[in-house]
C-alpha cells in the first residue's frame, strides 16, 4: 500500500517535471502573441460570378514573431470543393519573412498520409539571420472544383490550426503561436431574375375609394409558365403580399401571352402609399405617379420582377387641401 502511494507521488513529480520541461522548450511570451493567419480570413464567392476552374489566392501571414528560422504551414480543406493548384514562395515581396534571404522552400500534396484535401509547405532560412516582426509566409492558390445550384451553399474550413503548422527558432524550438483557420464559401445565389410584364387595374388609384382589391396581371418571358408562379411569394413593393385567393390565369390584354391575375388588398396599398409618398406634394398636386414593383418566385426558386406605374389621386378640393395644410 505504502509502496503504491510513493510511486504515485513519484509519478506526479515526474509529470510536473515533464510539464516544466515542455514549458522550457516552448517559452510563453506574455508581452505579445504570435499569430499565423490567412489574409483575408474568408473567401466568399457567388456561383453566378465564378465557374469551375476559377482560382483564388490565400495568403498565409505571421504576426509578431521573434527569431524565426523556419516555418511550416499545413492547410486542410474539403477536396470535393476546392484544391490547391499552385503555391508561391513570395520571394519578390518585401513582406516575405525570408525576403532577400537564401531559403529552402518545399511543398507536398497530401503529406504524412493526411490524404486528399491536405497541402503542406515549408521554408528554412539558410542564412544566419532570423526574421522578427510580421510578414508573409506563403501564397497558396486554390481552384474551385464544384459550383452549387440555386439556393445551395458549399463551404469548407481552411484549417491551419493543426500540428503540422508551426514556427521554429534557430534552436529547433517551436515558437508558440495562435493558428487561426480561414473559411471558404460559395453560394448558388438567387439565380437570374426574370423580367415580368406587370399591368395593374385600376391605372389610377383613388386613395379615398373603398374598393377591396387592386388587381394585377403578370406575364413571364417566353419558355416560362405563369402557372409555375408560387403566389405566396408575390410581393408588391417588397411590402404587400398578394392574396392567395382569388387568382386566375387568362389573357387579360389579348396579346397571346398568358397572364396570372393576382389581387392585393387595397387598404394595405393605400396605407403603404400614404406612408411612403410626400403627402404635402400629393395634396398640392392632387395626383402623383408612383411605381409599383411586383416580385416573386416560381416553385423552383427562380425569381421574377416587373414594374408598372399608376396614378394616385387624393380627390379633395385643391384650395381646401392647401388651406388645411397651411393651418
Ligand atoms: Ca397577356
Descriptive overview:
- The protein has two domains: about 30-185, Immunoglobulin-like, CATH 2.60.40; about 195-325, Immunoglobulin-like.
- The relative contact order is 0.14.
- The chain is elongated, with a radius of gyration of 33 Å.
- The N and C termini lie far apart (about 100 Å).
- The strands form five sheets. Strands 13, 15, 17, 18, 21 and 22 form a six-stranded mixed β-sheet that branches. Strands 5-8-3-1-11 form a five-stranded mixed β-sheet, with no helix packed on it.
- The protein is built from four helices and 22 strands.
- It has about 325 residues and is α+β, with helices and mostly antiparallel strands.
- Residues about 1-30 and about 315-325 have low confidence and may be disordered.
- Calcium ion binds near residues 252, 253, 257 and 259.
- The site of calcium ion has 7 residues, from loops.
Any chance you could write out the topology, listing elements then pairs?
Layout: H1 2-25, E1 34-39, E2 42-46, E3 55-68, E4 70-76, E5 82-88, E6 103-109, E7 118-125, E8 131-144, E9 153-158, E10 166-168, E11 177-179, E12 182-187, E13 193-195, E14 197-201, E15 204-206, E16 213-219, E17 229-236, E18 240-241, E19 248-250, E20 259-265, H2 266-276, H3 279-285, E21 287-298, E22 303-313, H4 318-326
The structure holds calcium ion.
Bound molecules: calcium ion
CATH architecture of the largest domain: Sandwich
Q: Could you say how many structural domains there are in total?
A: 2
**How much of the polypeptide forms β-strand, as a percent range?**
35-45%
> Mind summarizing the main beta sheet?
6 strands, mixed
The residue fraction in helices comes out at: 10-25%
The number of helical segments is: 4
Shape: elongated
Report the radius of gyration as a whole number of Å: 33 Å
Structural class: alpha+beta
* Number of E-state strands: 22
Amino acid at each position: 500500500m505504502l509502496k503504491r502511494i510513493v510511486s504515485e507521488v513519484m509519478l506526479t513529480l515526474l509529470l510536473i517535471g515533464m510539464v516544466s520541461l515542455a514549458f522550457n522548450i516552448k517559452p510563453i511570451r506574455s508581452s505579445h502573441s504570435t499569430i499565423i493567419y490567412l489574409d483575408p480570413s474568408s473567401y466568399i464567392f457567388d456561383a453566378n460570378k465564378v465557374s469551375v476552374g476559377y482560382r483564388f489566392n490565400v495568403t498565409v501571414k505571421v504576426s509578431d514573431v521573434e527569431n524565426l528560422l523556419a516555418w511550416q504551414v499545413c492547410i486542410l480543406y474539403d477536396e470535393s470543393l476546392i484544391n490547391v493548384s499552385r503555391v508561391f514562395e513570395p520571394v519578390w515581396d518585401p513582406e516575405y519573412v525570408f525576403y532577400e534571404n537564401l531559403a529552402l522552400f518545399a511543398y507536398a500534396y497530401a503529406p504524412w498520409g493526411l490524404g486528399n484535401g491536405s497541402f503542406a509547405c515549408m521554408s528554412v532560412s539558410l542564412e544566419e539571420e532570423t526574421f522578427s516582426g510580421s510578414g508573409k509566409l506563403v501564397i497558396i492558390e486554390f481552384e474551385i472544383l464544384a459550383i452549387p445550384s440555386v439556393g445551395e451553399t458549399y463551404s469548407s474550413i481552411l484549417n491551419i490550426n493543426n500540428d503540422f503548422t508551426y514556427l521554429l527558432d534557430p534552436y529547433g524550438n517551436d515558437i508558440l503561436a495562435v493558428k487561426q483557420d480561414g473559411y471558404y464559401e460559395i453560394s448558388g445565389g438567387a439565380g437570374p431574375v426574370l423580367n415580368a410584364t406587370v399591368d395593374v387595374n385600376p391605372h389610377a388609384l383613388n386613395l379615398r375609394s373603398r374598393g377591396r382589391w387592386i388587381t394585377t396581371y403578370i406575364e413571364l418571358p417566353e419558355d416560362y409558365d405563369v402557372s409555375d408562379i408560387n403566389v405566396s411569394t408575390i410581393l408588391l413593393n417588397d411590402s404587400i403580399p398578394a392574396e392567395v385567393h382569388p387568382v386566375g390565369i387568362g389573357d387579360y390584354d389579348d396579346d397571346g401571352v398568358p397572364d396570372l391575375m393576382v389581387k392585393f388588398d387595397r387598404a394595405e396599398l393605400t396605407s403603404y402609399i400614404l406612408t411612403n409618398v410626400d403627402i404635402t406634394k400629393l395634396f398640392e398636386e392632387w395626383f402623383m405617379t408612383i411605381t409599383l414593383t411586383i416580385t416573386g418566385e416560381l416553385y423552383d426558386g427562380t425569381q421574377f420582377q416587373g414594374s408598372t406605374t399608376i396614378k394616385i389621386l387624393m380627390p379633395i378640393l385643391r384650395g381646401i387641401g392647401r388651406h388645411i395644410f397651411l393651418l
